[in-house]
Amino acid sequence: MAIKPLSLAAKATIDGFMHGINKSTIKGAGMEFSQYRSYQAGDDLRSLDWKMFARSDRYYIRESEMETSISVRLLVDASASMNHSDGNQTKMDYARYAAACLAYLANLQGDAVGLYIFKNTGLFAMNTRQDFQHLSRLFYQLENIKPEGSFTQQIQYKEIFAGPRKRELLIFFTDFYQQDGELLKLLDTLLPLRHEILVFHLLANNELELDFKGFSSFEDLESGQVIQLDQKKAKSAYQERMNEHLQNTRKEMLNRNIYYRTLNTNEALDQALRDFLNQRNKLNH
């Protein structure tokens, strides 16, 4: 019962409009017909089209297109700052639903999917697999994430993510709050593995606009530090610094050839994911 709301929400969001996040075509013994070509010495005789031979008295190989399957690893920042909310929804709520949707989509396509949760108590690792029971366990873990503390201390990330000897798709959900560049250190550790990396940067509208309805006292969710702030006086300088932070983050990702997209937690999740998938499809074609 614990996984039912999240699994149903993911299914409802995905069904009907989302397309593959990793579609590619290769020549092989797939299901959908692509083209014929002339037989060449060494070709698999099982691929010969005997009906074409009967019509033309020539040997032709029937080629098909098939989609490649990949491993998708969902990386979730579960530090305390992900408890930040704008209204009734926290950043973690948004991240867990977005991750559940992409996990459901990956499983639907026949891709293996795994889950990795980062917080200061360590790293929870759920290796990639492709079956419904595994997906159900993944939903359960997403549902029960409780953000706390700071980001995971640096450990042997490279060994954890080396995995199988093929490229994987790593999708990272984070609010990009870091004390000593630990998020960039993680990404820099993953880059030499030559996986494709996507970063979703979660932001709440009230932190973008500095609009906290009259509050003058603010506490850092990770360090516990409290500051006093006059929102009206600080608003202009704050928004300038926020824009600078976002531009620098985008530049850091671009320099690393990492796909980067901000997600506003006030943005409808289905629309956000649709925009992302449409943009990704354009980049892949």
Automatic annotation (TrEMBL):
Residue ranges of every copy of the DUF58 domain listed in the record: 35-245
Pfam families: DUF58 (PF01882)
SUPFAM superfamilies, sorted: vWA-like (SSF53300)
Designated name of the protein: DUF58 domain-containing protein
